[in-house]
Amino acid sequence: MNNRVRELRTAQEWSQADLAQRLDVSRQTVNAIETGKYDPSLPLAFRIATIFRTSIEAIFHPDA
Amino acid sequence: MPRITHTDYRRQMIVLMCVYVATMLLLWPHARTASSLPLKIGCALLPTLPILALLWLMAKRVMRSDELEQRVHLVALSVATGIVCALSLLAGFLCAAGIVVLDGDILIWIFPALCASYGATRWLLARRYGAVGCE
């Protein structure tokens, strides 16, 4: 699954640690999501969408 | 619940392992020579207390981890359990067939074997996910 988490995070000028703190996850988990090594659960995807004030489908896209 | 950082976990683990080594060196040898049965049982089982505390610490760490860290812990623990079960089965069959001679002392090595397999598997998984749980 592709995602725009890194793009949205850098637009906010947040570090991975900043986003990790807001999501209550480890910085390594944020990194794994951004690099596409891990697809978050639905609750975590909702938290990510809420933090960036957008919808899940605007952040996560299935692989083409 | 606050997360347990790797530094905090390592510090607490080192303290518990020092207690374990101290009980093994100072008290456990008396298990064979103690005169009364309660003292014998006490000396023999005392080293398990720091290990039980370590298991509780590991459980707390996993429970307070995020979802990806929990996944890594779960997969690593499953693989470690499989490895130790397979080795125990092999050793059991070899012993039952009279090919090797094993006594009860070998049971002491099950927990260290589980920890070693768990650590190695977690390290491999952490590399796959980008060093999760190795901060």
Task: Characterise this structure.
The complex is a heterodimer of chains A (64) and B (135). Chain A has 64 residues and is mainly α. Chain A contains 5 helices and 2 strands, in the order βαααααβ. Chain A has helices at residues 5-11, 16-23, 27-34, 42-51, 56-59; strands at residues 2-3, 60-61. In chain A, α2 crosses α3. Chain B has 135 residues and is mainly alpha-helical. Chain B is built from 6 helices and no strands. Chain B has helices spanning 6-26, 30-33, 37-45, 48-63, 67-96, 110-129. The two termini of chain B are 19 Å apart. The A-B interface holds A 24-29, 31-32, 35, 37-38, 40-41, 44 and B 3, 65-69, 128-135.
End-to-end CA span of chain B:
19 Å
Given as residue ranges, the uncertain stretches of chain B (5+ residues, pLDDT < 50) are: none
Q: What integer is the average pLDDT of chain A?
A: 93
Tally of DSSP helical segments of chain B:
6
Please tally the β strands of chain A and state the result. 2
* Total number of helices of chain A: 5
Question: In a few lines, what is going on in this structure?
Answer:
The complex is a heterodimer of chains A (64) and B (135). Chain A contains 5 helices and 2 strands, in the order βαααααβ. Chain A has 64 residues and is mainly alpha-helical.
Topology, pairings included?
The complex is a heterodimer of chains A (64) and B (135).
Chain A: E1 2-3, H1 5-11, H2 16-23, H3 27-34, H4 42-51, H5 56-59, E2 60-61
Antiparallel strand pairs in A: 1-2
Chain B: H1 6-26, H2 30-33, H3 37-45, H4 48-63, H5 67-96, H6 110-129
Helix pairs in contact in B: 1-4, 5-6
